[in-house]
Amino acid sequence: MVTFFGELDNVCSSSDGIDLIGEKLTDLQLLDIYTEITNLGTRHPDDYCILKSRESLLTLLGEHEEAIDLISQKNILEKHPNLQLNLAGHLGAMGRKEEIKDLLSSLILKQETTVDLLIAFIAAGTLDKKDEAVTIWNKILEAEEITDLTIDDDVLEYPDEYSCLSGLPMREVITGLEILQRYGIRENYEVELYFFVDFIKIYLEGISDNIYQTLDNEGPYEALPGFLVAEAVGDNGFALATKLCNVRPVEDPSISLRLHTCLNDIKKYTSEYSIGNRLIESLHTDAINKPGFLKTLQTETGGDECQVFEMLYHLEDTGISDIIPSLMDEMERNNPDIRSKTIEQSRKFPGLWENPRSEDWNYDDPEEELYDTLDELMEKREDEKAFEFLTGNMREGRLLSESGVSLYLAGNLGKMDEMTDFIPMFKEKELNQYAYLLEGYQFLLRKDIKRGLDLVNRSIQAGFSEEDAMIHLARFLNQSGYPKRTIGICEKLLKKPGSKVTEIYPALIEAYRMQGKEKEATEAEDKFKKIISG
Questions:
Q1: Which of 82, 149, 438, 441 counts the most CB atoms within 10 A of its CB?
Q2: Overall average pLDDT of the 457-464 stretch
Q3: Which residues does 304 contact at the CB level (< 8 Å), separation at least 6?
Q4: Range of 439's domain?
């Protein structure tokens, strides 16, 4: 059986948040996770997620000498210059004051790229060189072209695109926010804070796919480390975000509202993981058999009845304990509507609650042969033929249920203009999710960014897959001449576990090249090649 951190995808989905674990996990728990990730590293010796996770865990364990040895291997510090700041942190923890001063001073002098400037800003703040830190921050804002930023819907929807600190790992983002607060720097501060809080929310939301997949495929005890880490990140993330918000209250009302929403979401996700953690551990300790267990569980985790009921449902499916169905029965006796309420608010896997069709259920579909032909063309990767076959049938009113596939093929083949002919049909058939996306495409080509983005968002609200819509949007923005926005979207998508990397990376690489960022484009190409080669 493979436990949570024995899978590379799970490590990658977790690595950005490990710095936020703090003291929530015991040294033994941290060491178990470190050992498992280290073993995984023997199969993936050059993976950055594994390297970063190991360094973060060694930091939490206080093993600074070992951490220095780890990041000083080969040419790691040259390939990942931000790790110089981690090196400085380890030197400081070991009391090597002169070495840390020399290192940080050298980092301040190197200001060739935006990444160099960000590192220099953190270095200056760490050495408490206020004037230099303020000067460098202003240079960063100019380089990112976000001086005098107006807070509009675009900023609120994509804070990572307008955050300068988003180019750094989470440990340095936190340090950067503390420096901005300490020196009273207001320029872009509220956007930086919003990005940080929004990141925690997205992290907690995204990692759930990996946790529940491990729960379903491997079992509760194998998924437990994922629950532990997610709960710790949520707890500490919420505490830190609340502290930062209280130290300097946000003045912009729209950002303040978004922060409030994000904090509520973080609290909700943390309760969910806490419920999972305690339920699994209670099975091991037999605490689950104690009277009043469910009420105590709800009180201790801050969760609600629906969250408890849904987690019991997930665990029931694993068959780990006979008592789980009886607990669900108890909840339904006390609250007859609990199942329907849980289904209504379930954020994960609502399909689990649906009654499966009987095996002998069948019907005659007049388009069945057409679907088979389309499937065959798609399996053979004959995209051109599949596109012509599908759109030809759609013009005759057939295969309209595959309209999303037609847009996917059009995006791959560069034939989105041909799809705009279908807008009237989509509206007539009330397939508004496709009509809105294509109308958004048209407005973006005309450089009407606000209207274009609004229509793409409306397509999502109408039922278009959010990830697919964002991938289309990234391509649209490249085509319209807005590669910087594409980079922000793609980087955000790639942080989510299970993302469609084969569609995201080509748009990201193209955007980097459009911005003249050949180094970043080459690095992205190398990562993409490793992924597709297995």
A1: 441
A2: 84
A3: 271, 298
A4: 367-532
